[in-house]
Known about the structure:
This protein is α/β, with parallel strands linked by helices. It contains 23 helices and 22 strands. The protein has a domain at 72-209 and 452-547 and 584-603: FAD/NAD(P)-binding domain. The strands form 6 sheets. Strands 2, 3, 4, 5, 6, 19 and 20 form a 7-stranded mixed sheet that branches. The longest helix has 26 residues, at 352-377. The N and C termini lie far apart (70 Å). The mean pLDDT is 92. The structure holds NADPH dihydro-nicotinamide-adenine-dinucleotide phosphate. NADPH dihydro-nicotinamide-adenine-dinucleotide phosphate binds next to β7 and α9.
Amino acid sequence: MSPQPDDPDRSRFAPEELGFDPEVLRAKYRAERERRLRPDGAAQYRRAAGEFGYYAADPYTERVDRETVHDRVEALVIGGGFGGLLTGARLRQAGLTDIRMLDEAGDFGGTWYWNRYPGIHCDIESYSYLPLLEEVGYVPQWRYSPGEEIRQHAIAIAKHFDLYRDTLFHTRVTELRWDEEAAEWQVRTDRGDAFRARYVIVSSGTLTQPKLPGIPGIETFRGHTFHTSRWDYGYTGGSPDGGLDRLADKKVGVVGTGATGIQVIPHLGRDAQHLYVFQRTPSSVDVRGNRPTDPEWAASLKPGWQRERMDNFLTIVTGGHAETDLVGDGWTSSARLQRQMLSGTVDTSLSDEDREYLDEIADFRKMNEIRARVDEVVTDPATAELLKPWYRYMCKRPTFSDFYLQTFNRPNVTLVDTADHGGITRMTENAVVVGDEEYEVDCVIFATGFEVGISGVLSGTLPVYGRDGIPLLQSWSQGPKTLHGFYSNGFPNLFHLGSLQNATAVNFVHILQEQATHIGAVVAEARKRDAHRVEPTTAAEESWIATIRAHSRDTYRFLAECTPGYYNNEGKPRPHTNSFSPGPVVFHDLLRRWREEGGLDDVLARA
Length: 607
Ligand code: NDP
């Protein structure tokens, strides 16, 4: 009998029973990790700023001059992505009329504003990912929505909740300063605005600033170049649906094969005269199976359907139990493998050691399937070998595509593996160089991802001065201090959205929705009680930090053994995860109980 997934009897996991040798795979993973580690770690990248600022410029909306703003609003929401929009919506529902939304982009949408590359799709099922579907009265047209449909939905939310009324787009907050006497924030921006807000909600995202590899000679390249999050359709032709007709006579190089690269590369392969894919670490690429929404199914949906589907998905992907799997896709079927990385319910019937061992076996099996799929699809065996990922499933964001691997069977597509050189060696005026090999190209497209900043507040790009003018980063010099990730002592009425000391999950919009609901409830209660300050005590912060630290060991160990990437700070994971490890389902329940059982009494103070 073949070993059962929850049977801890290791004698039954002999290589001949399993069909593979765990020790051989472990050694292979270690070797591949070593091959990819770079001594410069996260310092290998360059900001798309200064001399590289054009990589981050907005190609979609013209920046227009406007009058500066000098007024007072009740709430300022920084960030017009789903986090900001959801918070704006909940604040409206809490009765606030005076809400100002602000973003560096030219419109709402956040990541879906910036990322419009060909092939862009949501990799989470749209019926769970797109928020407030029932409130706005929309059912997505595809199981996995194209980016433009998601962007239009963001706009629809803004219109539905009247959030365009007082927006400041193409604007960046340059300073937040607390005025203790007035109990409000003084806000300054890069457009010369100076206004006041009682509440400030920071939802500026975690993966927003495009990053470039620090390739020697990158600045000498004379061909065309851009980052995937600022797609230049003027150069390529076509649209997010493809049809990049101006590339027909161009040799194109694309750098990066993460979640973005996987979606872009099939279009570039189809339309460029020749495509060079510069790969350092291959992604795991599973089956997608996108399909249009069945109109009969859409018509049959009963009120409350989205909440039920979102809860069901979140429960399953974080390792909890649900009677039925409503979504039934690559995420829910690999839930067990996400548990260690993204946290969740822990199976307490097994010892830690047995659980980890069994999870690892399940992981090897999944990755063997992923690697076998490469052999099935890619006809050239040498190329297939290079496309196989050798690491645990959640070391990098898993990807899904029915077109990516197939692209490497095209005669005009060349895979260039750069792993032995730690990436691209250098660039010249007209070529990309890997080792001694030179690849002449007309255009280089960087699918090289984003800086990981837990909001501008932590990265220092948004300076915050709290009570007595104390800078937030000074107050957090020994590490972030919050209650539930939302607010900090000394910085009243300032709310943060994001995973820091809060929760995380693959469907991060679900997390944002819960955060927005919580903030809406806290602000509504503050208004009801006429409390002018929302601020936790230092004791509440300390207790919450202790709770976060108590559970963080598992994730750290897992990440420490992973191949480098942004998940593990390029091979050097930080000592604790900074999210609540028992998982979002437990966390959301904890928050609900906290609100119901008098927690608000501790953070609301009357003037
Ligand atoms: P990633 O950071 O995941 O990928 C960057 C890629 O660039 C990697 O393949 C990396 O290789 C490669 N790279 C970096 N430097 C070099 C170099 N010097 N030479 C060669 N290659 C290099 O960025 P993505 O934009 O792909 O994805 C970021 C995140 O955005 C995803 O993880 C996901 O969370 C989100 N996303 C979500 C989507 C969705 O549908 N919901 C779609 C797209 C993105 P290496 O791995 O070796 O570092």
